[in-house]
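Hello,

I think I submitted the 2-deoxy-2-amino glucitol-6-phosphate job twice by accident. Can you confirm which output corresponds to this input? Input:
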Amino acid sequence: MCGIIGIVGVEPVAGRLIDSLRRLEYRGYDSAGVAALVDGRIERRRAAGKLRNLDAVLAAEPLVATVGIGHTRWATHGAPTLANAHPHKAGRVAVVHNGIIENFAPLKAALIAQGRHFESQTDTEVVAHLIDRELASGKDPIGAFKAALDQITGAYALAVLVEGEDSLVMGARRGSPLVVGYGAGEMFIGTDALALGLLTNRIAFLEDGDFVAIDHDTARIFDADSHAVERPMHIVSAASALVEKGNYRHFMEKEIHDQPDAVQHTLSAYVDPITGSVASPGVDFAAIDRLQIIACGTASYAGMIGRYLFERLAGLPTDVEIASEFRYREPALLPGALAMAVSQSGETADTLAALRWCKARGIATAALVNSHESTMAREADVMFPTHAGPEIGVASTKAFTAQVAALTALAIAAARQRGRIDAVEEARLVGILLEAPRLIADTIRGEDTISAVVHDIARARDVLYLGRGTMYPLALEGALKLKEISYIHAEGYAAGELKHGPIALVDEATPIIVIAPTDALFDKTASNMSEVIARGGRVIMITDAEGATHAPDGVSIVLVPACDPLIAPLVFAIPIQLIAYQVAVFKGADVDQPRNLAKSVTVE
Ligand code: AGP
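Support: Only one job matched these inputs. Its output is below.
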């Protein structure tokens, strides 16, 4: 989950490493560090906590060098302390690592028995020692690196610096992403294209098991069998460079406001507004007898909304499962099914493993991803893009609505392909779908109406979210958003489930947020709301003008524009996100980098 970067450059390296790490902070921010070759010797600067702490260390103790490696950490082995901050150094070698070395404990014991001293509790430090030991036995750097790789198991992306090798950085990947960047007289490696966005747009994606040695002009790439290989160079999109927050206070705020565009751009990939038709390039849903959606967190809630739509519109049996359970459950999926991973990053370890599990069993795979150059995008048989642009805030917002938009479009395509609707009905549904960006924009403009309920929620210890139909996954998403950025305990429930337990939690101290568009289920949701009010519960109702006229006395209303049920998940997602955002700001929480979290979860 960490971010890594390596530069063999001609310009001062410290600032460039920091700029690249800033683009990787979404992967973790427990500590940060850099190592560079200063007059042939490795020097390190490290700091616990966020990147700005490393900035301060570098300001006090500059590094004058042009070749170096850097790291931003999401702690797995060892607390987020200075001693555990990467790069780790042993003898002539400095290493940064993303992933987990699973056999580090026996390796460490053996190295200690040989008289080697360890400074940290990390799994990573063994890699530095292993390479240094191989160098000491007379191997050249590539031979020593390869010999060390042969001894470790687990998931990793590594970047390595060797003392005395003035224009060499080595890298390797197994299970974690690593790319190579081509500059003019300089070369780079990094976790992803975004990390290298300020350095180059010419990128080669390493394959699993590859290792690489870069110097000023070349990248020598070897596959897992040590055969020299070439990996094609791609010119990556300018979007990789778009990671500024402009005039917004937080990336999350910006990304909430980006949503009309994110949804519009995503729909453009599927919908032809002239003919009123939808395409699903690469997949014929008529030829599929079951859809298995696999995802984690927010993406899984988008998948749950997708299930309602695929089953209702297209009559396509659809399951949704969180990837961490799916991958170890021995699911009884048969050929004829389509497994669809839904992921913003396209790198989430459990989702990727579940996708690979399906692929290995001959099941057709698709990846609905926002990072189009990600591992899932490249490994799935078909890629369904979302076009939300880079999402930096840890709390997913625009990626979620873009996923819901794409899934809605695909469900309409599936309905047509499976003969459940004709061209006229398809065009009608497309017309409704294309209203979503405008209605999302209208809802965002009404954000001030949320302020009235923010104080109430911010003071609460527990909050319940209730919804029915597609509003049930939104209730789950609302609770997740509030938990992750405001640290308030929150739970989402299907409103009909209330009487089966959760109603015991209802008291006057617990705000209950009821998501209730005027649709076929409105009356039932309103009944559940009355049950809560009868027990002294404080209800905040998110609804449209028609729904508001049916609200009992004492209910606080958050008003959204009226919309067709097809796009209600897109419109009602906005107040859900804004409530979490405004509560977090009110509480003074670190909105973009909440504690213990990372944007991209590349460990299981
Ligand atoms: C959402 O706010 C979370 N940060 C998290 O649940 C996220 O959606 C999940 O980790 C999946 O990530 P992915 O979409 O990149 O696979």
